[in-house]
Each structure stands twice: as C-alpha cells, then as structure tokens.
Amino acid sequence: MPSPVMDRAMELARVDLSPRHRGPRAVAVVAAAVASLVLCLLADWLLARAGVAVFPATKGYVHFRFSDYSKLTIIGVIIACAAWPVVARVTSDPRWVFFRLAILVTIVLLLPDLYIWVKGQPAHAVLFLVLMHLAIAVITYNLLVRVAPVREPASHGRVSHDGRDYGARHR
C-alpha cells in the first residue's frame, strides 16, 4: 500500500519514473561534457590568475595550482554530466529538478571552502575558490540543459489519419 507521505514527497520532488519526454541524446551529453570540462578548466585558470593579480600575496597558493583544482573540477563535471540523463529519466520536470540539485550540490561543495577559511586560510584566496565553484556550476548546468536538452515524446503529438503514430519515423 503506497504511503501518502511518500507519494506527496515524490510529487513535491517531481519524481516521475515514466516522464513523457525522452532523455537527452548521448552524443549531446558527451558534447556538453567536453565543452563543460574545457570551459570550467579555463574559468578556473582565469580565476586563479585573477586571484593572484588582485591579491599578489596568494602567489604560490596551493589551491590555485592547476594540478590541485583541475582534478576536482574534472571529477565534479563528470559526475554532473552523468547525473543529467538520470535526472531527465526520473522526473517530469528535469530542468527544475536539476537546477535545484545543482544549487544543493554547489552549497555542499562550498563546505570545504568554509572549513579551510575557518582553519585560517586567507579569506581573499578562499573567495576565489568560491568563485571557481560558482563558475563551474553555472557553466556545467547551462551547457547540459542547452546542448543536451530533454527531447519531446517520440510521437511529437503527430498521428496519421488512421490513428497510427508516425512522428518517430518522419524526423
């Protein structure tokens, strides 16, 4: 017997295991992932350089080294890119859900920045790490939902005069 509380929770989270749309094309997700990796690493690099330019005392700061931030950026972007088709599959409103998940994950990923700041890392350097996280979130979210959008149902609402679905054959 289904639980009314669980049903309501799934409704609020917009979980729908049989959404009407089709998921994003795999090739589009890969293209979005590659573009996101390149643009996120470029944004990180530019922000690290800007951090040193604005605050010269941060020159040599360990978290501004490409080898330090690139590993974490690559892992995060790959996880987000893998999550997008899954979210698209389990909800009737994937952009709504993915946007909120992106915000939630970004907040969680800011916790280590908060921790190192509390432990004595320079606030101005940590500010640039926060900007890196925000840039990654904005870039990755936008590329995924725009380059690899969910697709309309196969029939696209087109039905032949005799009632047969022909939308999937005539694209």
Please provide the ordered H/E string of secondary-structure elements: HHHHH
Largest sheet: none
Strand content: under 5%
Question: What would you call the structural class?
Answer: mainly alpha
Distance between the termini: 42 Å
Quaternary structure state of the chains depicted: single chain
The number of helical segments is: 5
Mean pLDDT: 87
Tertiary shape: elongated
Structural domain count: 1
Report the radius of gyration as a whole number of Å.
21 Å
| Strand elements, count | 0
Measured as a percent range, the helix fraction is 55-70%
Give the low-pLDDT segments: 165-171
Textual characterization of the structure:
- This protein is mostly helical and 171 residues long.
- It has one domain.
- It is 66% helix and 0% strand.
- It contains 5 helices and no strands.
- The protein has helices at 4-12, 26-54, 66-90, 94-118, 123-147.
- The model is unreliable at 165-171 (pLDDT under 50).
Descriptors:
171 residues; mainly alpha; 5 helices
SSE blueprint and pairings:
Elements: H1 4-12, H2 26-54, H3 66-90, H4 94-118, H5 123-147
Please provide a brief summary of the model.
This protein has 171 residues and is an all-alpha fold.
